[in-house]
What we know:
- This protein is α+β, with helices and mostly antiparallel strands.
- It has three domains: 12-50, no CATH class; 53-86; 90-186.
- Helices cover 72% and strands 9% of the residues.
- It has helices at residues 2-9, 32-35, 53-86, 90-134, 141-186; strands at residues 12-16, 22-25, 37-40, 46-50.
- It has a four-stranded antiparallel beta sheet with strand order 2-1-3-4.
- Strand 3 (37-40) and strand 4 form a beta hairpin.
- The chain is elongated, with a radius of gyration of 37 Å.
Amino acid sequence: MLLTASAAQAGMYRWVDGNGRVHYSDTPPATYNQSGGVEMNKQGGVVKRTQSEAERRAEAARQAEEKRIQDEQQKQAQLDRALTQTYTTEAEIDLARDRALENYKLMNRGAEIRARAVDANLAELRGRIAAIEKAGRPVSPNLRAQLDQAVREREDLTRTIQGNQEAMEQVRQKYAADKARFRELTGSSK
């Protein structure tokens, strides 16, 4: 009697094979978990649906994308709170920008002053080397090493100045974006 009851409740399985053909059976195929399918009762109603491997991957990708979007929204909300809690007016944002830029301006002034001194040293070294070569004497390795060192220092200073200028531009862009976002959040205008 128990066997008859369990046989009466046993369902049917429906799945689609790799060729796109639909199959029905009272036992699931060996590939059921990879290909997915539907478990049905004797009346043909769906009891349980099993996703295929491709459906599971697509679902996982969709959930990952939803999580990424949610994380971005949370991060933006934190940044917005920090922005509105840090500044009360656009003028305060301009002041913060100017303070951040001042450090780079000071570093560039120092590098430019040093660059002028190095340029003068380079001119003097090149003049000495030219005079020695004009006189037909050999240039000492020490003098050439001094020239090479001065050239490297000048190149380093040039990179430093350019790096500071690029950093200043990034600071300007960051504070401009902050200011625009502050306007959006507070409804203020220029």
